[in-house]
Design brief:
heterotrimer; A alpha/beta; B alpha/beta; C alpha+beta; A: alpha/beta; Rossmann fold; four-stranded parallel sheet; 7 helices; about 45% helix; C: Cytochrome-c3 Hydrogenase, chain B; globular
Amino acid sequence: MAEAGENFAAFNSRALVEMVGGVTDEALKATRIKKFLGVLAGRYFNWAGRKSLFTLHLGIKCCAIEMAAAATPRFDGDRFGVLFRSSPRQSDVQLINGPISKKFADKVVRLWEQMPEPKYCIAMGECAISGGPYFQSYNILEGVDTVIPVDVYIPGCPPRPEALIDGFGLLREKIIRIGGAPSVQRASEKPVIVGED
Amino acid sequence: MVGSISLEQNTSAAEASLAAINDRFGGSGIDASVQNHSNAKKYAFVRIVCPPQHWLALAKWMKYDLGVNYCSMVTGTHFPDGPDERGWEVAYHFLRQPIQDQTPNTCTVHDVNALSGMDIPMEYEVFIPLPQGDSPTVPSIQSIWVGADWNEKETWDLVGIKFEGHVNMHRVLNPNDSPEGFHPLQKQHKLRYHDHNEMYDDPQGFMRKPADEGRVK
Amino acid sequence: MAQMWITMGPQHPMTHGLWTLRVKVDGETVVDTEAELGYIHRGVEKICEARDFTQVTPYCDRLCYVSAMTWANSYIYAAEDLLEAEVPVRAEYIRLISAELQRLASHLMWLGAFGPDIGNLTLMTWCMRDREMFLDLLQELGGSRMHYNYPRIGGVKRDMPIGFADRVIAKTKLFEKRLDEYEMMLDESTIWLVRLQGVGYANAESMVEAGVSGPNVRAAGVNYDVRWAHPYSVYDEIDWEPAVEKPTSVKGADCYDRYRVRMEEMRQSCRMVLDALNKIPGGKNTNYASGDEMIYTKAPTRAPEGATGFSNYECTRGASQFYIQGGGEGRGKNPYRVSIRSPMFITIPYVAKTMIGYKIADIPAIMGSFDPCIGETDR
């Protein structure tokens, strides 16, 4: 029978869990199961990540119409797992589809920083790659890679929806190589260009 | 088949407007004429060249007595190599549209062939030459036509022509933190690579570097 | 309750383009609005001063990217005014057909974006599917799905391919039946009607004073269309009527009227295309070579200083105007000044004021019903 002041429910289970957890962890590390589980989990997350690339719903200029066309029944990006999310916190991929003006440059960077890792950037269309037909303009940056790191470039003005879907395919291949890796590991990776090889 | 405004209706409306303008403003430095387009159906329109000091009076008369109810475009040009009295030019385009009070459940039905007098749609072009100098100024017509509001903001933003009496002038296309006095469509501002003939000097763009390298965060 | 400003910032799924709409709300009611544009200001007017007259055409395609052919035509008419070029009649017919097909594609894009604003996601898939039909036709003419660079100063780039006319007729007739399907789905839907009727009143006089034109002003009962008021091309030779909608209230046109006007415009565009194919000189199944005098007349390439050109054209969203001055670089090969008047640049500040007094949930309906396209706004 519990006496006043004694609380069996508050028996210090936290210490027990830590002790048991620590012993198990040592055991797993010793038998290298932990590393094996880590690799398996990594591969699983890699597979899940590349099969469901949530793209930020950002439509800048003409390529946004082709992006919208790629989501529609004729080309259907959704069967590849490409879904458009309104919030940058919930998206994996930022698809830059238009020229970046000086007014919008810090918003692009802010959207990029709001996206959680792992995150990727696709530059779609000539304007995002290098300024496009507006490379001489006083207000347009020469390519979005002056402000954020780009993984895949899709040339075209505008690129056909099939090219955009191919770009997503190349991004998937890149994810297989680099995994859900933090950006420091990606500094050495060359960006992929649709249409090469 | 809907009718269109015929050439006769258009020419008669242009001549009537010209007569009214000359009647009211003839001999005061306001020069009006009827011109013909060289494209499409070669219709006529009224072109007015007006010195800035008479502009407000002309604008008010056009709105209330000539029935010009649609201010379409306000723009400006910089002529640094032009004559002394025409270093800048503000160009206005107006339209006169046949609008009536719309009561519910009715459409304005035009029998196009029966439109006459001030009901015939007409285009007006007004040029205001301003002297050479650094601060071209022209009276604002923001209070006369609502449609002139953002057009004037854009003209100041891009070309640098000041509109006297314009309330709440602010940058509308350029970034809000553009430097004071930066008006890109003036001729002294050059485009990037304006003197680089890339076809001969650098066809593949290997030597091209972004002009804002290091300056954009 | 305190009032606060909410920023519907540049990245927003509902704004149909990159602009900021700041709304001041008191609870759920909108009390004041402010629009901020300029996020894709590309300085096209300045760039065009360094380009030939022919090289400017692709820039005009990219102004309003959803209805590229109409903007390219609009520029070409201004350049023809400046350079005093002649255009053969068959080329005018082909320009008319291409412009009306583009108008159909653009209105379908509008409807496909407007439906999801109201919550009807099915419309997006249906409209884009039908838009693909017209994009295929325009691709046959111009070479690309979206930016064609098709009209030339003095004519068109190339003639209609063999069999194009039959495909146009088949697809247009199919689309007219599809329009009936859309109307069946939407006009009897309570949700659609409740969300659109009584929302976003825009009065005819204030619209005209503010410079609004096009389907937005025709929805208020005002019968003004540049195609009959300042005629160009061959609109006076083919069978059509301007689509005007009777406003249901003295307060003006609501969102439902603007939706109806565009559906009616789609029907009229179909009618125009079919009629133009019947009346085209040279026949609809002949294909003349590029540069043939039936479709192209060589135009002068230089414009002297002091020459000006102006065009007033009925683009999908209103009356677009180009004002070009000659005498630029290259001894007149380039324009000295290209000034572009975009209907949406005038309409968007007007739309921002229309929203005052309604609820936050009405903002997408009102904004979408005016059909904003920021490409032409920001030039």
